[in-house]
Design goal:
- The complex is a heterodimer of chains A (266) and B (318).
- Chain A is of the alpha/beta class and 266 residues long.
- Chain A has helices at 40-53, 74-83, 101-115, 135-143, 196-202, 223-226, 252-262; strands at 6-10, 13-15, 34-36, 62-68, 87-91, 120-124, 147-157, 160-166, 170-177, 180-184, 207-210, 229-236, 244-247.
- Helix content of chain A is 26%, strand content 28%.
- In chain A, a hairpin with a 2-residue loop joins strand 7 and strand 8.
- The longest helix of chain A is centred in the middle third of the chain and has 15 residues, at 101-115.
- The model of chain A has no long low-confidence stretch (mean pLDDT 93).
- Chain B is of the alpha/beta class.
- In chain B, a hairpin with a 4-residue loop joins strand 8 (125-129) and strand 9 (134-140).
- In chain B, helix 3 crosses helix 4 and helix 5 runs parallel beside helix 8.
- The model of chain B has no long low-confidence stretch (mean pLDDT 93).
- At the A-B interface, helix 3, helix 4, strand 7, strand 8 and strand 9 of A face helix 4, strand 6, strand 9, strand 12 and helix 7 of B.
- Chain B: It comes from Sinomonas terrae.
C-alpha cells in the first residue's frame, strides 16, 4: 500500500439527543447524560477505514481523537479509543466553558498545530448540540487548508482527497490535495460498535491533555470571554399537548379532512 | 441602523428568486443594504436589486468562482466587506452559505449566528435550538455581525424607496484559489416537482409503518401541494432517498401543517416536526408517542385513512 496517514478526528461530548435536553439558567447547555456525538461516529469510522486500508496502526497509520471541553469530555475520547482510535488528545481548561464556534475553532486549530504533521482532519457534519456546522470551515480557514465538507463518500488517491457532496439540486465531486479538512454526513458509512477486545485495548491507549497555556492561548480568547456571540434569552418552546385522538371506524379519512378544513388548511 | 452587505449566490437567468428577495428583505431590517453578487448581473437584475433597496452591487469582475468550494467565495466576500465596511453581513443558510459565513467570521473576527429565523433592527437574532425544543435570541458582540438566515425569515417585498445601484467590481484576492477544493464534476439531482422540503407549507411524512410503500404518502402530498418527508427508519431501510429525511440528522421543518403517517414519534423523530404549526398523526399503534404532540390523531391503518382523505380533498376541490 501507499503512504501512511495521520488522521485527527474531532469528537464532541454532547447531551444524548435520545433524551430531553435543557438549557440552564446561565443560558448554557446542561451537559449531564452526555455521550460521544452520534454524528462524530461516522467521521471516526471513515478514519478507521482509511487507516485499515493502509495496514492500520501496525503499518504506521494513526487515528487520533481530539476533543475540547470539561474533564467529563474525556468520556467521548474513551469511547473513540474503544471503537478503534489509536490515541486521544484532550484540551481542557475552565476558561473553555461557553465557547462559540469562533472560539472553538481557535482552540482546535492551536491543538492541531501542536499535534502537527496531520494529513487529514475529519469531523462529523455537525455537532448534535450546537448544530452550526461552522467549525470545519473555520478550521480550514485558520489552518489555510482546503475544506471538503458534507462528504457522503471519501477516497484518498495518492495525496488527493476526493469526496461526493450532495447539495439541494446537484451532486458534486470535489477534490483537494492533502492535508485537508473533511466533514462527513451520516450517509458515508455504518459506524461500528466497540467490542470487548476494543474496550480492553482502549485501557492501554494514551490520552494527552493540553491546557490553554500549553497551546499558547489565554483565557480571554476563549469561553464566554472570547466568544463573539452571546445568547440573550433561551426559552423552552411550550410543550405541545395532545389534541383530538380518534380511532378509525371507516370514516377517519373524512374526519381528517374535516379537521383540516376547520383549520383552513384545505 | 447598521449598513448591511447581503451575499447572493448565482442569480437565475429569469431574475432574483424568492429566497434571494427574502435575504434582501432580511438585510433591510438591519439598515441600508448593498449586495455582493458572485456572478455578473444583467442590467435587469441590477434594476431589480435597486427596487429591493440595494444601493451598491459588488461583483467579482470576470473571475469565475463556480468551480471551487467556498474558500475563494469567502476570500472575495471578505475583500468586499473591507471595501463596503458593513456592520453586518447576511447570507443564506445553505451548506455553502453557512460555510462562507464561518470563514468570513474568522477573516473579519466577527461572530456568526446561523439558522436565523427572524432578525430585529437592533441585531437580535432568533433561532430554535436542540431540535426545535428551545427558542433562543442571540447577539453578536464583535463590531461586525454575520448572520446565516433561513428561508422565510423576512417577507420578500420591494423596498419602500427604490435605489439606482452603482455596480462596482472587487477583485478576488490573489491566492484565494491556491488551497481551495476543486469541483471536478457536477450532476443534477432528480427533481420531484413537489415543493422543497425545508420551504414547504405542508409536509406529509411516512415512516416504518409504510412498509416501503410511499404511494399513499405521495398521493396525499400531491393532493395538498405538499412536500414528502420520511423518518430515518424509512430512509435507512432504503425505501426513499436520504434527501427526504426529517429529524435530528435530517431536516428540521417548520411548515403550517405536518402530517405524520406510520411514524411512532420517538424523540429524534419528534425533533424534526415539533416546530410545525399543526401536527396530524396517523398510526395503527395507539401507544405511539407521536399522539402526545398531535393536534389531530387517527389510530388507524394509513393505507385506508390516507387514500380516503386524498379522495375527499380531491372531491371538495372538484
Amino acid at each position: 500500500m501507499g503512504d501512511t496517514l495521520k488522521i485527527v478526528v474531532l469528537v464532541k461530548h454532547v447531551p444524548d439527543a435520545q433524551f430531553d435536553r435543557h438549557i440552564g439558567p446561565d443560558r448554557t447547555l446542561e451537559r449531564s447524560e452526555s455521550i460521544l456525538s452520534e454524528l462524530d461516529e461516522y467521521a471516526l469510522e471513515a478514519a478507521l477505514q482509511l487507516s485499515e486500508a493502509r495496514g492500520g496502526e501496525k503499518a504506521g497509520n494513526q487515528v487520533i481523537a481530539l476533543t475540547m471541553g470539561t474533564p467529563d469530555a474525556a468520556n467521548a475520547l474513551k469511547k473513540a479509543l474503544q471503537i478503534g482510535a489509536s490515541s486521544g488528545v484532550h484540551v481542557t481548561d475552565e476558561a473553555l466553558a461557553a465557547s462559540d464556534a469562533w472560539a472553538t475553532s481557535l482552540v482546535l486549530a492551536a491543538a492541531l498545530r501542536e499535534i502537527g504533521d496531520i494529513d487529514l482532519v475529519l469531523a462529523g457534519m455537525a455537532s448534535t448540540d450546537g448544530e452550526t456546522s461552522l467549525v470545519p470551515a473555520q478550521l480550514a480557514e485558520r489552518l489555510g487548508l482546503p475544506q471538503l465538507t458534507f462528504a457522503s463518500s471519501l477516497e484518498i488517491e495518492g495525496r488527493t482527497a476526493v469526496i461526493r457532496r450532495d447539495g439541494g439540486t446537484t451532486s458534486d465531486t470535489v477534490e483537494a490535495d492533502l492535508p485537508a479538512v473533511v466533514s462527513v454526513t451520516d450517509q458515508i458509512n455504518e459506524p461500528r460498535y466497540p467490542n470487548f477486545k476494543g474496550i480492553l485495548a482502549a485501557k492501554k491507549k494514551k490520552i494527552a491533555t493540553f491546557s490553554l497555556a500549553d497551546l499558547g492561548l489565554d483565557a480571554g480568547q476563549t469561553g464566554s470571554a472570547g466568544a463573539l456571540t452571546r445568547v440573550e434569552q433561551a426559552e423552552p418552546r411550550p410543550a405541545r399537548t395532545a389534541g383530538t385522538i380518534i380511532t378509525d371506524e371507516g370514516d377517519a379519512g373524512m374526519k381528517l379532512v374535516d379537521f383540516l378544513a376547520a383549520q383552513k388548511l384545505v | 441602523m447598521t449598513s448591511t452587505l447581503v451575499y447572493l449566490d448565482v442569480i437565475p437567468a429569469e431574475g432574483l428568486g424568492k429566497p434571494q428577495l427574502e435575504l434582501l428583505a432580511a438585510g433591510r431590517i438591519l439598515g441600508p443594504i448593498s449586495a455582493a453578487v458572485v456572478t455578473q448581473p444583467s442590467d435587469a437584475v441590477v434594476r431589480e436589486l435597486g427596487e429591493h433597496g440595494v444601493e451598491t452591487v459588488y461583483t467579482p469582475g470576470d473571475a469565475d468562482l463556480s468551480g471551487y468550494l467556498v474558500a475563494p467565495q469567502a476570500a472575495w466576500l471578505a475583500a468586499v466587506a473591507s471595501a463596503a465596511q458593513p456592520g453586518a453581513v447576511v447570507l443564506d443558510n445553505s451548506f455553502e452559505g453557512k460555510e462562507i459565513a464561518g470563514r468570513l467570521g474568522v477573516r473579519l473576527d466577527a461572530g456568526v449566528i446561523t439558522d436565523v429565523v427572524a432578525l430585529e433592527g437592533d441585531g437580535t437574532a432568533h433561532k430554535t435550538v436542540l431540535a426545535g425544543s428551545y427558542e433562543v435570541s442571540a447577539k453578536v458582540t464583535s463590531p461586525v455581525a454575520v448572520f446565516a438566515v433561513k428561508p422565510g425569515a423576512a417577507e420578500a417585498a420591494p423596498a419602500p424607496v427604490a435605489a439606482s445601484p452603482a455596480v462596482k467590481a472587487i477583485e478576488v484576492p490573489e491566492g484565494a484559489f491556491a488551497r481551495a477544493a476543486r469541483i471536478t464534476a457536477r450532476t443534477d439531482r432528480p427533481r420531484s416537482g413537489r415543493p422543497e422540503l425545508t420551504e414547504a407549507a405542508i409536509v406529509v411524512a411516512g415512516g416504518r409503518g409504510t412498509d416501503g410503500d410511499f404511494g399513499p404518502i405521495e398521493d396525499l402530498a400531491d393532493a395538498l401541494g405538499a412536500a414528502v418527508g420520511a423518518s430515518r427508519a424509512a430512509t435507512d431501510a432504503g425505501w426513499i432517498s436520504h434527501d427526504f429525511q426529517v429529524g435530528q440528522t435530517g431536516k428540521t421543518v417548520s411548515p403550517q401543517l405536518y402530517i405524520s403517517a406510520g411514524i411512532s414519534g420517538a424523540i429524534q423523530q419528534k425533533a424534526g416536526m415539533q416546530t410545525a404549526k399543526v401536527i396530524v398523526a396517523v398510526n395503527s399503534d395507539p401507544e405511539s408517542p407521536v399522539f402526545e404532540i398531535a393536534d389531530f390523531g387517527v389510530v388507524g391503518d394509513l393505507f385506508k385513512v390516507l387514500p380516503q382523505a386524498t379522495e375527499e380533498i380531491k372531491r371538495r376541490r372538484a
